[in-house]
Amino acid sequence: TADIMTFGDGVTEMRNLLLEGFLIASNVSSNYMGIKTRRCVRTRVSNVDVGTPDRGGWFLAGGFQFDNFDDLSVNDIQAMATNRGIILNSGGDAWIGGGSKIMNQSSVPALVDGSEGIHLGGNCGGVSIDEIDIIYCGRGVVITKDLTATPNREIFFGNSCFVDSCGWDGVRATASSFGSLHFDGTWICSNGLRTTGAHAAYGIRVE
């Protein structure tokens, strides 16, 4: 009935948060996040797994959510969530990857239209996404102003970022939702596997 772990109250700045070496699992369906931080500065998340579909099913809707962040490092995590793997909402200086994996389902036919690997919801800048496998998601990376009505700024995708086998778009952005997107040898391939009827899918889509 609530996010499983929360840090920060969203008002007072919380500093030097370290989350390392544990797993969050659920055996009941939930519409909430595994881990949520609010106004946390200098946050390090390493070797943390959210969701364990190999233990009976896909129950958690969300993996990680970072609101009003600054100096964020997320490495060697797994997010197995049916709705959104990682949400970034308002902040700067984020490094996402380091051997991480994000999935919304175990195969493309099981995906629902709205699921997303990573969602940047507005006012995020200096975000680097690299050394990560984003696979079997509805859409791999989604960039909008849905959560904060300010455009995101600089978003960088590295040459060890893989966005593969998503049901619809690999990367989708609304036209007014970002300042600049940088792709450096990024692998975006085999997406659009569930494209039928009115749905249209692309590797990279700006609309």
Q: Topology of this protein?
A:
Elements: E1 5-7, E2 14-24, E3 30-38, E4 40-50, E5 60-75, E6 78-80, E7 84-103, E8 116-120, E9 124-135, E10 139-143, E11 152-157, E12 161-164, E13 171-173, E14 178-183, E15 187-189, E16 204-206
Parallel strand pairs: 1-3, 2-4, 3-5, 4-5, 4-6, 5-7, 6-7, 7-8, 7-9, 8-10, 9-11, 9-12, 10-13, 11-14, 12-15, 13-16
How does this structure look, described?
With 207 residues, the chain is mainly β. Helix content is 0%, strand content 58%. It contains no helices and 16 strands. The chain has strands at 5-7, 14-24, 30-38, 40-50, 60-75, 78-80, 84-103, 116-120, 124-135, 139-143, 152-157, 161-164, 171-173, 178-183, 187-189, 204-206. It has a 16-stranded parallel beta sheet that branches. The chain starts with a strand and ends with a strand. The mean pLDDT is 91.
The outline comes out as globular
Major sheet attributes: 16 strands, parallel
- β-strand number: 16
State the order of secondary-structure elements, H for helix, E for strand: EEEEEEEEEEEEEEEE
CA-atom Rg in angstroms: 16 Å
Question: Which structural category do the helix and sheet elements fall into?
Answer: mainly beta
The N- to C-terminal Cα distance equals 35 Å
Low-confidence stretches: none
- SS strand fraction: over 45%
Helix content: under 10%
Q: What's the mean pLDDT score? A: 91
Tell me the number of helical segments per DSSP (H or I, 4 or more residues long): 0
